[in-house]
Design a protein that fits this description.
Helix content of chain A: 25-40%
Radius of gyration of chain B: 30 Å
Structural class of chain B: mainly alpha
Shape of chain B: elongated
Strand content of chain B: under 5%
Strand order of the largest sheet of chain A: 9-8-7-10-6-1-4-5-11
Oligomer: heterodimer
Strand order of the largest sheet of chain B: 2-1-3-4
Helix content of chain B: 55-70%
Number of domains of chain A: 1
Number of helices of chain B: 30
Largest sheet of chain B: 4 strands, parallel
Number of domains of chain B: 4
CATH superfamily of chain A: HUPs
Largest interface: A-B, 19 and 25 residues
CATH architecture of chain A: 3-Layer(aba) Sandwich
Strand content of chain A: 25-35%
CATH class of chain A: Alpha Beta
Structural class of chain A: alpha/beta
Distance between the termini of chain B: 84 Å
Order of helices and strands of chain A: EEEHEHEHEHEEEEHEHH
Shape of chain A: globular
């Protein structure tokens, strides 16, 4: 089975963020980057499917600047067979439709049976790329996937619903699945994997060549949320204070 | 003395016995040669004085169990003397009319010593037999849940019994034979024990004829027994007699007990990293198995073993030894082993339980290094198999992404210096000393307290220093001890670049793990840094009079030795000196039962800071209870990992209100 995994490099969740000078994006210097968490699970799922069948190919596709090479190498070290890097320079495109279009144009001739992506990126968090990509390529799509089972020409997926409910859905292949974190145990690359990754192919292309549409949405500006403490004194008679307190609990703090 | 027929039988028996034993010994050396990193036998030979010195002085036996060590020394010296005795006795048996220097003072002295040492050896071995078989000394047993192979379980007692009985009979019958000779030729007070024994025979009414027969039987039971034992000797742990000293001769010099050779990760032809199978271990470490006498001293203070975990350093060597015996022929032939080490030498849990405290290596009387085996097997599991505790993987990922095992932002590394008046390298350019805060010293709350205390001391003493601030990144200690050589080397390269950039030559650090790594592991890579522990540096400042803390600490205090300051660096006095510099009454420093080179680990080393082993008691609790026993109100540490572990144990044992854990630097800084 030929599987594509979309892998994104995102700023580490423990990093300290500040807004860049022009206010368009975050300040990147000195920022630690890592593989998007749910993408890591998607990669592991792809590797496990390939290992179960003992055949097939796992190709990682990443879109972003040169620094993305790090996560691409990491994916290759873990066992992906080859990679495609769609290069993009700042200012980065933040529109999921354009991104999905670039990805679709890049992989359309590869005839993947399965495209796995993380549920959402830890930086932008739109959660749309995998779905739009599936739509463009005419694949069946599913989100919040927490389990997969390859069947003859089909795939059975387990989806996470609200309140501890799950849905099992059998879908036609090819399919594009957005993977939820936690469905497997991502591996750590072996030394052989790390060394072997250096010899694996990374095909490069440019974002501008792959995306022929204008972004449908963009950021106007970024600001940092400020935490502020505020004390409000409630005054009045005991009855007034109590009824005001109850009102605050009910409607502002929302204690049920 | 012997009849001609006896002499012929003896000579034939010598050929058979020596021949059989030779065959086995040569197989043993073939087994050893199966290992990697060949022993340089020429160098080993040059080390002969070292090995022989240990053998003669028996000094390595007295580190712990000095009483048993003394008995062993008596047996060993007696047995050494018996090498000569056996030659003399063979000549006495084989050459008619031969007597060794009769009526000569030297001959008499010789006979006197033989007589006395016969008694000592018999007494000593009897003691050993009683201790093992009647008193069932728990120290000689490997307890559950440690993995012990079936052949080891059966073999340990059998071997001890055979060896014990052999020595007892060999020496006993030699003494009895001498007494018969005395009965035949009249009393000889140079041999008091034999003479007394000869009176017993007379008292029993034995006739001259029976003395002759008795002397012949005794001769055969004393010397013939050697021939009977010789083919079995190499299979038994008694081979430690040769293999122990040989092990000392083949010793590999290490910068510190847990500092392994640097791996060439780029090596094109390398198929294996770390040790998965027996033949991946270096030859010296295979020899370890043959050198082990199974005294299990290494278990006595092993933090994992004594708290009921699956690890026993002793069991590693014991399992190794019986594996050799079981597979002797196939191993000697060069056949590949099939089972991975972590299936039969020790369990996987045991492998991760090692805190690399270094006690087992430090205490072993024959120079074995079970801890090093563990580190090599970890390397295999991490680098080749990617099989290790989940929490360790998180730590690897955090070090990779954030440069510290806590996964805190690298941009926050220098936050602790805010408001501290601390020079930073990127602004200062260069300084005589680099103060290395380390990840704990930069991120952990108590660690930051220690760092702040140290810079206060450095400022007070006008030391020319600076910190790397956000440019500092994890040294890779935990990564390396867990087995991730790749990550360690990546971290080392980053740090070494910075050292070069700022011309760093001297480093002060309060983290003994950083210290070992910077000094020894980086040293192994090829950068020689002068790294000094804060206990030593403060001690030095005190001695030079550059700081003068008030001597007004009146609380009773106990000091917990950090393994990587103590056993790994050999420093026990400096932190105590520093404590004394602030104590009003020097008698208020109360040592714990286990202290200095026999100190008990806090449980955090070797990567154990980062994952939980849930079997048995928690190591830090065990240690803190010992601190409570002293009655001290303060537990002083000189390591940020020890600090974290002791702080945790203080709360768990309900001592939050009554006791305090402090770093020696804090005690000094608050008195400046």
């Amino acid at each position: 089975m030929k599987i594509c995994v979309l892998v994104k490099q995102v700023p580490g969740s423990e990093a300290q963020f500040s807004v860049s000078a022009d206010g368009s994006w975050i300040q990147e210097t000195g920022l630690p980057f890592e593989m998007n968490e749910s993408d890591n699970y998607a990669l592991e799922e792809a590797l496990q499917i390939r290992e179960q069948k003992d055949e097939g190919e796992v190709v990682v596709v990443s879109l972003g600047p040169d620094r993305c090479q790090k996560v691409i190498r990491e994916a290759l070290a873990k066992g992906a067979d080859r990679a495609i890097h769609i290069k993009e320079d700042a200012p980065y495109n933040t529109d999921p439709f354009s991104i999905a279009t670039a990805l679709a144009n890049t992989i359309k001739d590869e005839k993947f049976e399965l495209v796995l992506s993380g549920l959402q990126s830890d930086d932008l968090g739109f959660g749309q790329t995998g779905v739009i990509l599936g739509e463009i390529l005419g694949m069946t799509t599913a989100t919040l996937v927490v389990g997969t089972e390859i069947q003859d020409g089909k795939i059975k997926v387990k989806r996470e619903l609200e309140s501890g409910w799950f849905q099992w859905q059998t879908m036609d292949l090819p399919a594009s699945l957005a993977i939820q974190s936690g469905l497997n145990q991502p591996r750590y690359p072996s030394l052989k994997g790390i060394m072997g990754a250096k010899k694996k192919e990374i095909k490069e292309s440019l974002f501008v060549d792959m995306c022929d549409i204008d972004g449908l949405q963009s950021f106007n500006g970024l600001s940092v949320q400020r935490a502020e403490k505020q004390t409000e004194m409630i005054e009045g008679t005991v009855d007034q204070v109590v009824s005001k307190l109850v009102d605050v609990f009910k409607n502002e703090i929302r204690i049920n | 003395m012997l009849y001609p027929l006896e002499r012929i039988i003896f000579v034939l028996a010598v050929f058979v016995s020596v021949g059989l034993s030779w065959v086995t010994f040569s197989k043993m050396f073939k087994v050893i040669s199966r290992g990697t990193d060949p022993i340089d036998w020429k160098k080993a030979l040059a080390n002969f004085p070292k090995g022989f010195g240990v053998f003669l002085s028996q000094r390595t036996l007295f580190k712990t169990r000095p009483f048993i060590g003394g008995i062993h020394a008596a047996v060993a010296w007696g047995f050494t003397l018996y090498m000569a005795v056996n030659v003399v006795d063979i000549l006495y048996g084989m050459i008619p009319g031969f007597h060794f220097l009769p009526n000569n003072i030297i001959g008499d002295i010789y006979r006197f010593f033989v007589d006395i040492f016969s008694l000592l050896v018999i007494g000593g071995v009897k003691y050993f037999i009683i201790r093992r078989f009647l008193a069932n000394d728990q120290k000689l047993i490997v307890n559950k849940p440690v993995l012990l192979s079936e052949s080891a379980k059966k073999g340990m007692r059998r071997d001890s019994f055979i060896v014990g009985m052999f020595i007892l009979c060999h020496v006993g019958f030699r003494l009895i034979g001498a007494s018969f000779e005395i009965s035949l030729h009249g009393s000889d007070w140079s041999q008091p024990a034999a003479t007394v024994l000869s009176f017993v025979w007379t008292w029993l009414g034995m006739a001259d004829g029976s003395f002759v027969i008795g002397e012949h039987i005794s001769w055969w039971l004393a010397l013939g027994l050697i021939l009977a034992f010789l083919p079995y000797f190499p299979y038994s742990k008694h081979a430690h007699l040769f293999m122990g000293p040989l092990n000392y001769m083949a010793t590999k010099e290490r910068r510190s007990p847990a500092t392994l050779e640097i791996m060439d990760l780029e090596a094109e032809d390398a198929e294996q990293f770390g040790a998965s199978k027996l033949e991946h271990l270096p030859q010296k470490e295979l020899l370890d198995g043959y050198a082990c006498i199974m005294c299990s001293r290494c278990q006595d203070l092993c933090p994992a073993y004594t708290t009921g975990k699956e690890l026993s350093p002793s069991a590693i060597e014991i399992n190794k030894r019986y594996y050799f015996n079981e597979h002797l022929t196939s191993l000697a032939k060069g056949e590949e082993t099939t089972e991975p080490l972590h299936k039969w030498m020790l369990s996987e849990e045991a492998l991760w339980s090692c805190t690399t405290c270094g006690f087992c290596v430090d205490v072993c009387p024959v120079g074995n290094e079970p801890m090093v085996d563990i580190l090599r097997i970890r390397q295999d599991l991490v680098l080749m198999e990617s099989k290790f505790p989940q929490d360790a993987m998180d730590v690897f990922n955090k070090i990779e992404t954030y440069g510290n095992p806590w996964g805190m932002s690298p941009q926050d590394r220098e936050k602790w210096i805010e408001g501290q008046n601390v020079p930073v390298m990127r602004e200062k350019g260069t300084a005589e000393y680099l103060y290395w805060a380390g990840c704990a010293g930069a991120y952990d709350d108590r660690g930051k307290d220690i760092s702040k205390s140290i810079v206060k001391i450095l400022n007070k003493a006008n030391v020319d220093y600076a910190v790397l601030g956000n440019e500092e990144t994890c040294t890779g200690d935990s990564a390396r001890r867990i087995g991730n050589e790749y990550l360690f080397q990546m971290q080392a390269m980053q740090n070494m670049e910075n050292f070069e950039k700022y011309g760093v030559k001297k480093i002060i650090t309060q983290c003994p793990h950083c210290l070992t790594t910077l000094k020894n592991d980086y040293g192994e890579i090829g950068i020689e840094l002068e790294v000094i522990h804060h206990s030593q540096f403060i001690d030095q400042l005190l001695a030079e009079g550059k700081i003068k803390p008030e001597k007004n600490l009146t609380d009773k205090i106990t000091f917990h030795d950090a393994c990587y300051v103590g056993r790994h660096q050999g420093e026990y006095e400096a932190p105590r000196d520093v404590l004394q510099a602030v104590m009003a009454d020097k008698n208020n420093l109360i040592e714990m039962k286990r202290t200095k080179d026999q100190s008990f680990c806090c449980g955090a080393g070797g990567g154990n800071m980062w994952y939980e082993i849930n079997t048995g008691k928690r190591i830090n609790i065990e240690r803190f209870e010992e601190a409570i026993e002293t009655g001290a109100k303060k537990v002083a540490t000189s390591c940020n990992f020890c600090m974290i572990m002791m702080e945790d144990a203080r709360k768990v044992t309900g001592q939050d209100e009554t006791m305090e854990v402090v770093d020696i630097a804090e005690l000094v800084a608050e008195r400046l």
